[in-house]
Amino acid sequence: MIIVNTGNGKGKTTAAIGQVVRALGHNFKVCIIQLFKSDIFYGEQGILKNLDGLDFFSFAKEHPYFNHGISLDTVLKQCLEALDKIREILKGNKKYDLIVLEEFNIALRDQFIDINIFLKLLKELSYNSKIIVTGRGAPQQLIEIADLVSEMKEIKHPYNIGSKSQKGIEY
Question: Per-residue pLDDT tens for 76-109?
Fold first, then answer.
């Protein structure tokens, strides 16, 4: 099963983490491969990295939109390392019941990952695992092959009146 959490609203990662907790509660083996989130900023990482039954990998921790000093070539290389991790999982002996590909829609949207290569790997992964792909701007090709697509839609957000992101809520 392929699940996609997308849209411009809040809650894509939060929903995926809820699924992770549910899966771990059933003693499933879970893997998260995350893009564009630094280790020192996002609160969920401190908890997730310490949970039994969960393997957590983080690549391309900075996105050029937010970190203007990072080169596009560096981000591209790091996103390709994330794809290599997926290939390693496919070839390895360790099987996961659930794999979360966090913010991969962003990498697809910004063309750091080739959509055709990603879809091929995703189909292979989905033979043995349930997959959740998160991030804004899911490409139409991904939406078409997914079994479940949820769109988080922003109705109102405090950013729009100048509020800053809130620790424990946005990160």
Answer: 999 999 999 999 999 998 899 999 999 999 999 9
- pTM, 2 dp: 0.90
Is there a contact between 98 and 129 (Cβ–Cβ < 8 Å)? Answer: yes
Q: What does the block give as tokens for 41?
A: 């900023």
5: left (phi over 0), alpha (psi -120 to 50) or beta: beta
What residue ranges in the chain does DSSP mark as E strands?
A: 2-6, 30-35, 54-59, 98-102, 130-134, 148-151
pLDDT tens, position by position, 39-60: 765 677 888 888 999 999 999 9
Report residue 57 as tokens: 């990998």
Cα–Cα distance measured from residue 5 to residue 102, given in angstroms and rounded to the nearest whole number: 10
